[in-house]
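LAB NOTEBOOK - FOLDING QUEUE
OPERATOR: T.R.
BATCH SIZE: 2
PURPOSE: Compare the predicted structure-token outputs for two unrelated chains run back to back under identical settings.
PRIORITY: normal
REVIEWER: second-year student, initials M.K.

ITEM 1
FIELD SEQUENCE / FIELD STRUCTURE:
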Amino acid sequence: MRRLRVLEDITELRRSAQFIAQNIAELSESAAGINRHAEKIAGEIATLTEAASGIDSSAEKIAAGANAIAETLPRIQRLAEVVDPLESTVARLGWVVDRIPGGKRTQ
């Protein structure tokens, strides 16, 4: 009876060892797949890092351009303030010149 139990235990241990070996093989395949995907992901990260660097560079250029525009804006506004009243003055001056004998503009 005891020998029978020992044989049953040995058989069960053998089955367990086979099960463990099979699972280890499957886990090894999964680990290899994970390594392959990790390499692909690392490559993608490198590509994204390069793209982000380009975006950073472009953003710096855009910021510099925006700052230059912002610095110029007050001068443009001042120029518009000066030119706006002159528009009606030039129109009136043209009207006066048109009224001078021999001063009619040709169109």
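ITEM 2
FIELD SEQUENCE / FIELD STRUCTURE:
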Amino acid sequence: MGLTHETLRPANYCEIGCRLGYSLALSRVPAIGIDPDYEIKVALTAPTRLFNTTSDSFFARDDVAQILGAPIDLAFIDGLHLVEFALRDFMNLEKHASPDSVIVIDDLLPQHMDYASRQRNTTIWTGDVYRLVPILRHYRPDLDIRVYDVDMKGFGLVTRLDPSSDVLAGNYGAIEADILAGNWSFPTVAAIRDHMQPRATDLLANDLGSIAARRAAKASMQSGRRAAPALPHRRPRLSVIICAYEMAREAPRTILSATAPYQKGLKEDEYEVIVVDNGSSTPLTYDNLPPNAQIVRVPDPRQSPVFALNWAAREIAKGEILLFAIDGARIFSERLIDETVKAHDRMEDAFVFSLSWHIGPKVQMQSVPEGYGAEIEDGLIRAVRWPDESDGLFGISVLAGSSSNGFFGDITESNSFSISRTLFDRHGGFDERFTSPGGGLANLEIFRRYVTRPDARNVCLLSEGTFHQVHDSVATSGKNRWEAFASEYEAIFGGPYLRPSYHCFYQGKPRAGMVPFILQSLQG
């Protein structure tokens, strides 16, 4: 939705099903949010009117035209996930739109048929909204309906509207009877996709650009003036997505390390930092947050961080490259973001990752039972004059267990790996079947999935990494939970977790502080 707003630059915006306000907050123009149970969690920067009612009741008002004030220019349907409600929402929005307006529809490509049930039985739920597409294509072949293969749920654009059309209204009784009889449905995900013929996600930007150009050209003809070329709107190259939970001590250092002036190389408008608070008892805050950074509260906190990370990637992030940090207690090295972007520039569809270190004399699974803790660690960090001396962290850290094979062996996970949005949509994000606290082996699974692809282009950063601060983490606090994590993995995949074996390229020149670890890696 962020790309849609940025490209189309609508005159106004209407959202059905605004709930927590995350997509509503993307609007920069006068907006209307309709939801009988809205609970806005984010700041709405545009002039916004909220209506605590159902969409049917809103559009039944005698004064709806006066409330709208002008034809709806951009609308988003994300309300009750039943096809008849989505159909009525479309009918009402089109009636109050213009021929050049755009209607966006969510939940059109369920990834599993369980998601598409008419009653919610799963965490992820699309309902049977997908049935709206065959209905519209049958009754309204004049509409331009395009469905995009966005991960998990799909994304639809409807253009070439006709506000004067009464075809749907005239046939609504028959359509509703067909819906209740089970018509316009498909038995499998494959059958749904065969009908939808979803377009690749990387075509969305070009398609939106074409729609914007068509709208501008028509507006210029109506005004009798030649349209001025649209000014370029800069999107961040990369989105850093960090998940944090109960990290009031550790997360501020992580945020500092992920933003300027600590991060060197890229300009601030070339990347964004999204810190997802996964339900901390005291909401995470940070004084003087830079303009390219934000802290958001996940709408549905869970003990596993995987949903929060996927949600932020799909709903919040604007970058064409996504960098994930599953553990918000990890300090970034000072050029991690810049070197990541350079690696992606040099190799298309790369999977870029860095090694991980633990601050302290040993890996923290060993040092914590021996008395290592936050007070000792704070003293170590002060002693090396971090953040003024960024390389000092290498001198007080050891390679994490997952990175113990070093730069030239196979590691098992990374807390700073990145992929293009195209790869994210094609191969998926974190597997949301991992429900253990901390995600269990979710980070190992996604790392293995990407580095072992037949066409994988893996790039290891030689000059950068992350540093784990001690905290009450389920993985590094000294509590041995590997057996439970391994059991969860085996239950999901039907077999044990296996360390990956892969080939990789290298990016960057090792900094002085890394030389001992390079030598350690060479010695095997």
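REVIEWER COMMENT (ITEM 2): The longest strand covers residues 458-468.
FOLLOW-UP: none requested
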